[in-house]
Amino acid sequence: MSAATPGSSGAPMLGRERVAAAFRLEPTDKVPIYQAGFSSRAASLVLGREAFVGGGIQQYREARALMQGGYAHAEFLERSFTDAAELCEKLDLDLVRTGYWRKEEKPIAALDELTFQYANGEVWRFDPPTETYGCVSNPLPAATPEELTRLADQEVREAEAFAPTEADFPEHQRAVERFGATRAIPGGGVSIAVPRDDAWLEAIVVSPDVVGRMLDAQVIRAQKCAPVMARLGLPYCFGGGDFAGRSGPFYSPRFFHQYMLPRLSLISEACHAAGVFHLFASDGDLWPVARDLFGASGVDGYYEVDGNFMPLARLRDAFPRLKLLGGIRSEVLHRGTEDEVRREAKTAVETARQIRGCIVGCSNQIVAPTPERNLWAMIETVDRYR
């Protein structure tokens, strides 16, 4: 993907050109921008109407639509794409996000307006103030080690039979049709993570080879998806998977080195063979595994950069060629004053301009309780200084 040298023709760069230049660590006419994610409330403030984007609220909306029938579900999908696309256009983002959280399983019963039951017995409830939708009752006992082994083997068999084509990614295809000529679009299908429930986290200690088998299935799928992303014209493959918090990774650096690193390297190799970039995301403090994750693995970029744990400038010093996405802390946007938000956004833009290879945006979801004044302070400050 070619990009004009800033100022060489007098014309502003297109969003896709800014992102491509950033991935080559080249200068851009303006700092490229994106947003990791919007709550429905925040997006609704921007669009001036209820926006069908977000996290748990989208899963809840899909559950309701599925219960209402095929027409309602098709309407949900159409509005979700349209609202996400219009949000990107309204903010003139260089790297767009047109797909949000999904839960495609149809509930078997609505227990009340906010609560649904699923076939496995789980009961999920929606909390409107936080826009979260999660399991509040699970009658099933935790999986035994034998069950985890069977599940891992089944996942490998299914991954080996997996034969993805472009038609398996209709939302990506639609994003390309709308934005491919003007803006950069993330690809997918290359995520890898240990499932974050008690049984799998305990298995890291008692039966790590079973966990490795589950991770192998994810590698096989990623290796098959990378060439499809390339054929779709999506060179920035967003992957990864949350595995850390404020106190560091949920599992030891030793486990990461022995089990995650070789598999991450295989995904990077598959991405590079296909001609696409491999990006990784996780919340939290990743420094205990940073040399493996951002150095030895071959990962090209890191999104969800949060200055509380992984500041832009420190990451650039440690990993000179790593592409960095984020820089504006979601926590400051949510809990800070308007002045603090403006300082945060200005610092992120100025840092990005100095170190290159950065795409600035909120580090993670712009959560529902974010004050409206802070949302506009971030948007206006980024637009002014970029």
User: What is the CATH class of the largest domain?
Assistant: Alpha Beta
How is the largest sheet built, in terms of strand order?
6-7-10-11-12-13
In terms of per-residue confidence, which ranges show pLDDT below 50 for 5 or more consecutive residues? none
CATH topology annotation of the largest domain:
TIM Barrel
Number of strands: 14
Give a quick account of the main beta sheet: strands, pairing sense, barrel closure: 6 strands, parallel
Mean pLDDT: 96
Order of helices and strands: HEHHHEEEEHHEHHEEEHEHEHEHHEEH
- How many structurally independent domains? 2
**Level-2 CATH architecture of the largest domain:** Alpha-Beta Barrel
Find the structural class using helix and strand composition. alpha/beta
Q: How far apart are the termini?
A: 23 Å
Report strand %: 15-25%
Radius of gyration: 21 Å
Number of helices: 14
Helicity, in percent?
A: 40-55%
Sum up the overall morphology in one term.
globular
Overview of the structural elements:
This protein has 386 residues and is of the alpha/beta class. It folds into two domains: 15-50 and 141-385, TIM Barrel, CATH 3.20.20; 51-140, no CATH class. The protein is built from 14 helices and 14 strands. The model has no long low-confidence stretch (mean pLDDT 96).
Features:
386 residues; TIM Barrel; 4-stranded antiparallel beta sheet; 15% strand
Topology of helices and strands:
Elements: H1 15-23, E1 37-38, H2 40-47, H3 56-68, H4 70-91, E2 109-112, E3 115-117, E4 123-127, E5 132-137, H5 145-161, H6 170-179, E6 186-191, H7 198-206, H8 208-232, E7 236-240, E8 244-245, E9 248-249, H9 253-274, E10 277-281, H10 290-296, E11 301-305, H11 312-318, E12 323-328, H12 330-335, H13 338-355, E13 358-362, E14 365-366, H14 372-385
Parallel strand pairs: 1-14, 6-7, 7-10, 10-11, 11-12, 12-13
Antiparallel strand pairs: 2-3, 3-4, 4-5, 8-9
Helix pairs in contact: 3-4, 5-8, 7-8, 8-9, 13-14
